[in-house]
Amino acid sequence: MASRKESSSVSSTAMASTGGTLDSPVKQIQIEGLVVLKIIKHYQEEGQGSEVVQGVLLGLVVDDRLEITNCFPFPQHTEDDADFDEVQYQMEMMRSLRHVNIDHLHVGWYQSTYYGSFVSRALLDSQFSYQHAIEESVVLIYVLFTFVCNLKKANIGFEQMFEEVPIVIKNSHLINVLMWELEDKSTVADKHELLNLSSSNHLEKSLQLLMDRVDDMSQDIVKYNTYSRNLSKQQQQKHQYLQRRQQENAQRQSRGEPPLPEEDISKLFKPPQPPPRMDTLLIAGQINNYCQNVKEFTSQNLGKLFMAEALQGHN
Q: Residue ranges of region Disordered (predicted)?
C-alpha cells in the first residue's frame, strides 16, 4: 500500500484485487500529481460528509508498471435520473480525451471513503467486474484521514481480498517547486500544531463507526449461533427418525412383513439455510481498519500528554 500525506492530513491507497497465490501483473503504480489533485478536487466539490465519489482512471501499462496519467469523475445522479447511462458517459469521455491526444486507456477506478469504511461487498463486486474485464485494473481509495490499512496477515480472510501495490507520484518540476513553497510556509504552523493537546472529532467518529460495526458483528454472531442450534436440532431429529424406522423394520421383519418403503431423507429434513459469511468477513475487515486508525491517532495524543506532564513537573 502506498500512502501520501497532504496538507489536510490526507492519504491515498491503491489496491489491486487478487485471488489465491497468483502473481499480480502490476508490481508498481506511477500516478501523476494531476490525477491526485483532480481526485481531491472531486471529493471537495461533491463528496463532503458521508457522500462517496467515484471516477475512472486512465493510463497505460509499461512492463510491470502501471502509469496513471489522467482521470475523470462520475457525475452525481439520483434514482430520478433514469435517462443517465453510465457506460455511454464513459465512452463519450474517453472518446473526447482521445481527440485531444490524451491517454484514454481504462486502467481502473477510484473511490473516496468515509472514515476508512471502504471494505464492502459493493466495492469487492465492482473490483471483481473491473479486473475480470481488465487484468491490470486497480482501485484507488481516497481516504480523508491518514491511516494504515494492513491486509496481509492471514491466509484466508479479509486481509487477502486485496493486494497492496506501491504508488509513485510523478510531478513536473513546476509542481515540485510549488509543493516546496507550500511546505516551507507550513513549517512554523506544523511546529505549533505538535504542542496542541486538543483532539478533533476524528477519534469520536472513528469510535462511533467502530461500535456500529461491532453491533453488526454481534448480530451476525447471533444469527450464526441460531443456525448452529437449528442444524444440531435437526440432525438430532433425523437420527431419532432413523432409529425409529430401523426398530420398526426389525419388528416387521420378525412378524414376516415387508420392510417400510424407502424414503428420501433429504426431503423430509431440509437443512436450514446458512447465513451469508461474506458480510461478516467484510465487517471484520472494517473493524480492523477502525482499530488501526484509533490506535495510530491515540498513540500520538498519548505522547503529547506524557510530554506535557513532564514539562509541568519540570516547572
A: 1-20, 233-279
Same domain for 69 and 118: yes
Residues 206, 207, 209, 214, CA torsion sign: positive
pLDDT digits over 22-55, tens only? 566 778 889 988 898 888 888 888 766 567 888 9
Render 208-245 in DSSP notation, one character per residue: HHHHHHHHHHHHHHHHHHHHHHHHHHHHHHHHHHHHHH
| Same domain flag for 175 and 217 | no
The reply to whether 167 and 217 lie within a common domain is no
Total domains in the fold of the chain: 2
pLDDT at 215: 94
Residue 107 pLDDT class (50, 70, 90 cuts): confident
Residue 257, number of CB atoms within 10 A of its CB: 10
* Whether the predicted pLDDT of 21 surpasses 50: no
**Which helix (DSSP H) or strand (DSSP E) does residue 310 occupy?**
helix 278-314
